[in-house]
Design goal:
This protein folds into five domains: 108 residues, Histidine kinase-like ATPase, C-terminal domain (Heat Shock Protein 90, 2-Layer Sandwich); 103 residues, 2-Layer Sandwich (Beta-Lactamase); 142 residues, Beta-Lactamase (2-Layer Sandwich); 113 residues, no CATH class; 218 residues, Phosphatase 2c, domain 1, CATH 3.60.40.10. Helices cover 32% and strands 25% of the residues. The chain is flat. Strands 7-6-11-10-9-8 form a six-stranded antiparallel β-sheet. The chain has a six-stranded antiparallel β-sheet with strand order 14-13-12-17-16-15. The protein has a five-stranded antiparallel β-sheet with strand order 1-2-3-5-4, covered by helices on one side. It is of the alpha+beta class and 875 residues long. It comes from Streptomyces chartreusis NRRL 3882. Its EC number is 3.1.3.3.
Length: 875
């Protein structure tokens, strides 16, 4: 039965994925289901990504709460996309592949999942079951003298009442009839609320409806008896299912002063409750660890080594946990040892022949100086004698516990047996805590990778990708990182980015790494240790220390100012450093370097997470490289379609403003050109190819270059356009119709300019006279690229001193704001205000007017060509 519902829709944009995650997280936390929030967020993120990114449609998200758990449905509007069926044996592919990963996660994390299709939608759903919660723990109380036992009546009556799911009484035993005076037939079928006075427990605000829905509840309240009085009772409620599968509640009730019969005793410290009259502990684990036991793995391990050291009166103790394959042991806790230097270091389980070389058996070493290297963890620590015992769960090695002393011969088999007994008591608790930590790390890793994938997918800029890669690594995975990139297979790795959690150390680390040969670009997956930075750092620190002591010659005060940063830098990179290859499309494109400032080793889980991140980052970095290369090629080709600088025409001012529509486009369907034809004559053109973008730009290049070539052959304007028309039609399916204003201009000795123009389907040029009047300067003729037999003619125009000829493309006149359009009349009105302005000022005023006419970005290419014959005096 559905008890709650929440729904939302998200647009097909990248930021919707993060919004969907927040929506699911807030919804489930509001419902009180914090235990399953992480799994739900990860699955939702992948499915919404499939909808809004891969399918390219909006996503509808529905969260349903029921008694069994939570069901989440993600629907998109692309039902044709194929999804593997659960029952089929189809391979969903590698987890590293971007596609299909959401379904793999559903199969791994969800209790149930599936896919549903409709003619317009495809819905992927999954259900997460609520985790089983321990109802409570009953503890045995200590033995007490008779005078301290609780009082009860001669006969203790326990009323047993059963309530159905609606709160009505279905069963009423004889003790209930004796306690409250009602026969069973009188109360059966009535709501319990008719009899209960709720609540009487101090500090309890739980209502009867809430209490009857809980899996277990204990407390006191009152029952109105048949005589009208309220009888205080203590109740214990247990939620069960009847034979028909319907939920019901069994209520056990006693008189309130007899509550000890039902009440669960409070758990007290082991020192008070777990010791018998003979003084023997009933819980060896709690005696060894102490009460309360730490609830986190690191705390539990640290408490364990401290107790083990004290128990055997040792100088140090250590605990190592085994890897899943039981081939290595990882240092996780120690006391009395340089833990920072050894933490997370790994040693083999089988370190040599014989029982003393295996961590699977107890071992006692009387004197480590006689067997150097027998316990690598203790090398150089001054410890002489040591006892180690294995931690095992169901016969499987899970770790090793050891205690060491500085004196030789401190331990014997008796101490080994005592330590083994303690290890057996704590092994299960340690393994349970370890598995809990691994589960939390797994969930955190999935969330981390989901967020990282979103961020990396949100940019195609190389520098920004490098910065994101480093920022996701520091400080989450490492203290500092460096990214090396490889431009080509034959080129050397280049240090491209450095980041440290302390920004003041970045320049010093960059300088230090620049003096170190870069790591080899090995394509082998996984992290490998790189010792060169630490070695150079140690050498630099030594030289700085010697200079500070005046051992390198010269006055000490002259080198002192440089000592601080050098030592700080050396300390920052003096720890363990690992390198992970960045491999994309079967090629090493760089290396990701991670470092720590101390000898503390990287955890294997962190390295595995870093490896997953490096794969995603490498693909994003390579995509950014490809995008940058293709953008550069596109821009170079586009710039080749633009005319060179405008010629300097004596006696005529010429100005052009050009705007191509679309992000990243420098050339579109509009074009212009002004070029010399022969002595004293210049050609000019402004045109508009049908459409925008690269396809239109291709015809633009054809038209512009053909115009120059034909005009310089001495052909008249109509002949030039007729031949261009034939060239466009010869393009076949790639041809596009073209509007074009073409003309030849010849400045005259009297200060005027003679123009011969042909307007083939293009917006008519406007002539602005000195008196402010505006009129068309040509007649319309057929456009190009439509018919074969094209007959055109040219018209002659004389521009007097002070006159302006304005030529534009339809992107200017068709500028829209809602239902309004600038139009030819609006353009003419703006032009009338330009009397006395230079050609550049006229073009700029026209462009400002067009931009201000509408708030939206222009959707069409625009070109403005203004030519002005100056007067006798400069304006």
């Amino acid at each position: 039965m559905i008890t709650a519902r929440a729904a939302a829709s998200f647009e097909p944009v990248g930021r919707s994925v993060a919004s969907a995650r927040s929506f699911v997280r807030d919804t489930l936390q509001g419902w009180g289901f914090a235990d399953i929030v992480d799994d739900a967020v990860v699955l939702t993120s992948e499915l919404v990504t499939n909808a809004v990114v891969h399918a390219g449609t909006s996503a509808d998200l529905l969260c349903l709460r029921s008694d069994e758990g939570v069901r989440i449905e993600v629907a998109d509007r692309y039902p044709e996309r194929e999804i593997p069926l659960q029952a089929s044996a189809i391979n969903m592919g590698s987890p590293d592949r971007e596609g299909g990963r959401g379904l793999q996660l559903c199969a791994a994390l969800a209790g149930r999942w599936g896919v549903e299709y409709t003619p317009t939608h495809k819905t992927v759903w999954f259900q997460l079951d609520l985790p089983a919660r321990t109802v409570g723990t009953r503890a045995a109380g200590p033995a007490l003298p008779a005078d301290l036992l609780p009082l009860a009546d001669g006969r203790v009556r326990v009323a047993v009442i059963q309530i159905d799911r609606t709160g009505h009484i279905t069963a009423w035993n004889e003790d209930a009839e004796d306690l409250f005076g009602y026969p069973a037939e009188q109360v059966t079928g009535k709501p319990l609320t008719d009899l209960a006075a709720w609540p009487h427990t101090p500090g309890t605000s739980t209502g009867i409806a809430e209490a009857l829905q809980l899996s277990r509840w204990e407390g006191s309240y009152g029952i109105r008896a048949a005589n009208g009085r309220v009888t205080p009772v203590y109740a214990s409620h247990l939620r069960v299912r009847d034979t028909g599968g319907e939920p019901s509640t069994v209520c056990l009730l006693v008189r309130d002063h007899e509550r000890a019969v039902l009440q669960t005793p409070l758990r007290v410290p082991a020192s008070d409750s777990s010791t018998t009259s003979e003084g023997q502990s009933t819980d060896p684990f709690e005696v060894f660890i102490g009460y309360p036991a730490p609830d986190d793995l690191d705390g539990l391990l640290q408490r364990t080594v401290e107790r083990a050291r004290d128990m055997l009166d040792g100088d140090s103790a250590f605990l190592l946990l085994a890897t899943d394959d039981e081939t290595e042991l990882e240092v996780r806790a120690s006391t009395g040892l340089p833990s920072a230097r050894q933490r997370f270091a790994r040693v083999p389980v089988e370190a040599g022949s014989g029982r003393y070389g295996s961590a699977r058996m107890p071992a006692v070493h009387d004197d480590l100086t006689a067997v150097p290297g027998a316990v690598p963890l203790l090398n150089g620590t001054g410890m002489r004698s040591v006892v180690t015992v294995p931690l095992k769960v169901e016969g499987r090695l899970t770790g090793s516990l050891g205690v060491a002393a500085e004196a030789p011969g401190r331990y014997s088999n008796e101490e080994a047996l005592r330590l083994q007994f303690a290890a057996d008591r704590i092994a299960l608790a340690v393994e349970s805590a370890r598995l809990g930590e691994l589960e939390r790390l797994r969930r955190g890793s999935l969330n981390f990778l989901v967020e990282a994938s979103d961020l990396l997918a949100g940019t195609l800029d190389r520098d920004q990708t490098l910065a994101l890669m480093a920022q996701m690594t520091v400080p989450t995975l490492a203290t500092w990182c460096a990214v090396y990139t490889i431009a080509h297979q034959a080129s050397e790795p280049y240090l491209s980015y450095v980041l440290h959690e302390d920004e003041e150390l970045i320049d010093g680390i960059k300088s230090l790494l620049s003096k170190v040969p870069p790591p080899d670009p090995v394509p082998t997956p996984g992290a490998r240790v790189w010792t060169a930075p630490a070695e150079v750092a140690h050498q630099a620190a030594l030289r700085s220390s010697m200079r500070s002591l005046g051992l390198s010659g010269g006055p000490t005060h002259q080198v002192t100012p440089g000592i601080g940063p050098t030592l700080a830098t050396a300390s920052a990179v003096g720890g363990e450093t690992v390198v992970l290859p960045l491999v994309a499309r079967n090629r090493v494109i760089g290396m990701l370097t991670l470092g720590k400032p101390t000898d503390e080793h990287f955890r294997q889980e962190i390295l595995e997470l870093a490896e997953d991140l490096s794969r995603r980052a490498a693909l994003a970095l390579d995509n950014a490289r490809l995008y940058s290369e293709r953008t550069a090629i596109s821009q170079s080709l586009q710039r080749s379609l633009l005319p060179p600088e405008l010629p300097d025409i004596e006696g005529v001012e010429v100005e052009v403003i050009y705007r191509a529509a679309g992000e990243g486009n420098e050339v579109g369907g509009d074009f212009y050109d002004v070029f010399p034809i022969r002595d004293g004559a210049y050609g000019f053109a402004i045109g508009d190819v049908c459409g925008t973008g690269p396809n239109a730009a291709a015809v633009t290049g054809l038209a512009r270059h053909a115009l120059r070539l034909l005009a310089r052959e001495g052909l008249s304007g109509p002949a030039v356009l007729e031949r261009l028309n034939s060239a466009i039609l010869d393009e076949g399916a790639r041809s596009r119709f073209l509007t074009l204003l073409y003309g030849e201009m010849r400045p005259q000795e009297d200060g005027s300019a003679e123009l011969k123009v042909v307007c083939a389907g293009h917006p008519l040029p406007l002539r602005l006279r000195q008196d402010g009047s505006v009129e068309p300067a040509a007649e319309p003729q057929p456009l190009l690229g439509v018919i074969d037999d094209l007959e055109l003619y040219e018209q002659t125009i004389t521009l007097d001193p002070g006159d302006v000829l304005l030529c534009v493309t339809d992107g200017v006149t068709e500028r829209r704001e809602g239902a309004r359009m600038l139009g030819d009349d609006g353009l003419a009105d703006v032009l009338t205000t330009c009397t006395g302005l230079t050609a550049g000022a006229v073009a700029a005023r026209i462009m400002r007017a067009v931009e201000r006419f509408a708030s939206d970005a222009p959707s069409d290419d625009m070109a403005i060509l203004a030519m002005r014959v100056p007067g006798l005096h400069k304006d």
